[in-house]
Amino acid sequence: MTHIQQNIHRITTQITQLEQKFARQQGEVQLLAVSKTKPIEMILDAYQADQRSFGENYVQEGVSKVVWFNAHHPEMTIDWHFIGPIQSNKTRQVAEHFDWVHTIDRSKTAQRLNDQRPADMAPLQVLIQVNTSDEESKSGVMKEEVFELAQLISSLPNLTLRGVMSIPANVNDYASQLQAFQALQQIKAQLADKYPSVDTLSMGMSGDMEAAIEAGSTIVRIGTAIFGARDYANKQ
Ligand SMILES: *Cc1c(COP(=O)(O)O)cnc(C)c1O
């Protein structure tokens, strides 16, 4: 087994143990392998360990990976998640290549993704990015604005509203992590009452996975612990 495959097995086992510890349903928490800056060979390696969902942050890099897999391995069933910031001039590329978008934080982005989603593709599965830290500098919408954006998304035929996502402030103590995640869980629960398609809570990374799973996460986004440290030397 390769290092990457060992890492995936280790993290998958941890997720299963945490589901049991917090009385979550077995298999309810999905592992999203964040492959940004990492080469295609590593994604192929992870695929051999049954990893099927991959997250990318940069439009150009992500799109070129999707195109490569469609051309060389059309038989592989990969779910591609876009988890980076989206500029308006890049929405078309995202709409034409990805299955999921975690980072919708403006009505303009939602509208453009809807209008640019090709008719022969399934609706784009989307999450609203929420700012749980109440810091102006953080991306994501404030809690009060979530419902207005949800209203718009639910009216767009080529988008399916699946839930919310957050990248909370980087804190090390468990109680603070849990508090931020529970706030997001409540928003998701309120949204799910109103919109039956809402079932997803994207939260938890390598350093705060346990608190996220305790609070109800359904997608944990893990990069470094699977693929190793990133080298940003070639990035914009
Ligand atoms: C890079 C990234 C991750 C993965 O972070 P690691 O610390 O490498 O696990 C998760 N979520 C988002 C939004 C990211 O940009």
TrEMBL record:
Which Pfam families does the UniProt entry name for this protein? Ala_racemase_N
Q: What are the UniProt keywords, alphabetically? A: Coiled coil, Pyridoxal phosphate
Mind telling me which PROSITE patterns this protein's record contains? UPF0001
SUPFAM superfamilies in the record, alphabetically?
PLP-binding barrel (SSF51419)
Q: Which residues form a coiled coil?
A: 1-28
By its UniProt entry, which Gene3D superfamilies does this protein fall under? Alanine racemase
- Residue ranges occupied by any Alanine racemase N-terminal domain in the UniProt entry: 10-230
Chain positions found as N6-(pyridoxal phosphate)lysine: 36
Instruction: Return the similarity comment.
Output: Belongs to the pyridoxal phosphate-binding protein YggS/PROSC family.
Q: What does this protein's UniProt record list under function? A: Pyridoxal 5'-phosphate (PLP)-binding protein, which is involved in PLP homeostasis.
Stated name of the protein: Pyridoxal phosphate homeostasis protein
Source species: Vibrio hippocampi
